[in-house]
Amino acid sequence: MAFQLTATTAIVEIEGISAYSQSKETESLPVVKGEAPGDRDIRLWKEHMHVLGTGPDARITIPVHGFHQCLISGAKYSKIKIPGEPRGTWTAKFAAGISFPEEIITNQHPDDAKMETIYANAKGQRGIGTRVLRRFPVFYNWAAKFPVLVLEPRITKDIFEEIVSLSGMFVGIGRFRPENTGHLGRFSVKSLEWRENEAITAAKSKRRELLDA
Fold first, then answer.
1. In the beta sheet, which residues pair with residue 46?
2. What is the predicted pLDDT for the residue at 151?
3. Which of 28, 39, 93, 160 has the fewest Cβ atoms within 10 Å of its own Cβ atom?
4. In the Cβ-directed half-sphere of 163, how many Cα atoms lie within 13 Å?
């Protein structure tokens, strides 16, 4: 009889408590001959979005790696100790002990984006180079519901919810988040369903389902 791996599945529902902005790179996109940098920035502002699908069914997604990094930073920020390990914190457990089996899909359509114009460093790094006008998409009233595989057995429902809540309040996601002295991308946990000892199966992402359709 084959050994069956199991894990806890956390069904997480989050909702924004501040606006959310994305800043996907656009430097690799084709250049229009003779186009001024400012005109290029205006033309490509929507290309900063992470989008899954097309047409009416298109949705904004939260990059999985970015959200995972948010939780790792939140675990580090919390300084909560692991019971029985005086020097042990949850940072490494949230780095290696959780997994995201599919895309994090929000309730936002690309057409919901509002353009925000700000003065920012031309190279995208604070304090380096000149400051120019840049345009980025911003979303309001955003939310998402998605599964997280909790592989580390010492991560309990209470610890998971506390770390996710702290991450949403003090780290955030996207451009100009609290972690980077900004105010965008804060979120709260609206609901959390905890399903223990579920069999781990091969994940098939929504993006792959669209490609296979």
1. none
2. 95
3. 28
4. 29
Return d(Cα 23, Cα 137) in angstroms, integer.
Answer: 8
152 C-beta neighbours (distance < 10 Å), count: 18
SS (H, E, C) 125-193: CCCCCCEEEEEEEEECCCEEEEEEEECCCCCCHHHHHHHHHHHHHHCCCCCCCHHHCCCCCCEEEEEEE
Q: Which of 65, 67, 85, 75 is nearest to 162 (CA)?
A: 75
The tens digit of pLDDT for each residue in 168-198 reads 999 999 999 999 999 999 999 999 999 997 7
The per-type count for the chain, helices as H runs and strands as E runs, is: 5, 12
**CA nearest to 8, candidates 145, 146, 144, 155:** 155
Does residue 143 contact residue 16 with C-beta atoms inside 8 Å?
yes
Biggest CA–CA distance in the chain, Å, is 67
The pLDDT mean for the chain works out to 91
Q: Alpha-carbon distance 26 to 45, whole Å? A: 9
